[in-house]
Design brief:
Layout: E1 3-5, E2 11-17, E3 22-26, E4 47-51, H1 70-84, E5 89-94, H2 97-107, E6 112-118, H3 131-139, H4 147-158, H5 178-186, H6 192-198, H7 206-213, E7 219-225, H8 233-240, E8 246-251, H9 258-261, H10 263-274
Parallel strand pairs: 3-4, 3-5, 5-6, 6-7, 7-8
Antiparallel strand pairs: 1-2, 2-4
Helix pairs in contact: 1-2, 2-7, 3-4
Length: 275
């Protein structure tokens, strides 16, 4: 697995899959990037360069835990770009990783040719997702056999009287089957220091990031899942409106991991965008 040195000397790892024009992929979590796989077969169209964020996967633990902060992870993307010898990059961020990708695009607009934010986290731009918005999405699944127990757990969480987050896992998947369970397990963060510091004080400046995004010239794709409770389509649409040139795609029947729910549809959308 190839490695490179971050600006603070931390050794970071990445893996590659496929051929063609490179796409740098930033996982969510912060979690081991293996849950991204080859993004449902996107590697058949582009060379995926999938970063292990510091302290996850095969990347080293940093000496300074404050470098787990989202805004400081931006420097790791820039170090990877320099290591690869690329003048500009195609950049994909999933979930919390979209916060890193968004801040990178805001800070280095001249370095990003295309930016895909897949079921994105939105803390970098300060878009709030309410409990009511989540409950509305949940009701779309009321015919599913697992719905009663999962919805009861969701109501308890949103009302502040429960914390059984695993009970609501089915709401994040377009299909609640073995593949979904396996993917969720692979994507659970293991480094709790990285999770705790990711959103620490100073990690986000939504007003500044929003202002910087208006100056970007990159083409942008925001991809939402129809059922995604983490990144509801209505909120993703608001996110898309912050960019001067953004397309919004809502993948039918998908949750937070659209390449798992319908790989063919996901790859058709993203491969065309990055072409």
């Amino acid at each position: 697995m190839p490695t490179f040195s971050a600006s603070d000397g931390t050794r970071l790892a990445y893996r590659t899959a496929g051929d063609g024009d490179p796409v740098i992929c930033v996982p969510g979590g912060p979690a081991d990037s293996t849950y991204l796989g080859d993004l449902g077969g996107l590697s058949a169209h582009h060379r995926l360069i999938v970063l292990d964020l510091r302290g996850t996967g095969r990347s080293a633990l940093p000496d300074d835990t404050s470098t787990y902060r989202c805004d400081r992870l931006v420097d790791d993307i820039e170090a990877l770009r320099v290591h690869l010898g690329l003048d500009t990059i195609r950049l994909l961020g999933h979930s919390a990783g979209a916060n890193v990708a968004t801040q990178y695009a805001a800070r280095h607009p001249e370095r990003v040719s295309r930016l895909a934010l897949v079921t994105p986290g939105m803390r970098a731009v300060g878009i709030d997702i309410t409990g009511e918005m989540r409950r509305e999405l949940a009701q779309l699944r009321k015919a599913e056999p697992w719905f009663p127990a999962a919805y009861a757990a969701l109501e308890a969480i949103t009302e502040g009287r429960g914390s059984d987050w695993e009970a609501i896992d089915p709401f994040f998947c377009g299909r609640w089957d073995a593949a979904a369970r396996e993917n969720l397990a692979a994507g659970r963060p293991q480094n709790q220091d990285a999770v705790a510091h990711f959103g620490a004080e100073g990690a986000f400046d939504p007003a500044a990031t929003r202002a910087e995004l208006t100056a970007g010239a990159a083409r942008v794709l925001l991809l939402a899942g129809e059922f995604d409770m983490n990144s509801p389509p209505r909120a993703v649409a608001e996110f898309a409106g912050l960019f001067p040139d953004a397309s919004l795609v809502v993948q039918p029947g998908a949750g937070h991991y659209p390449w798992v729910d319908d790989a063919r549809r996901f790859v058709a959308t993203t491969a065309a965008f990055f072409a």
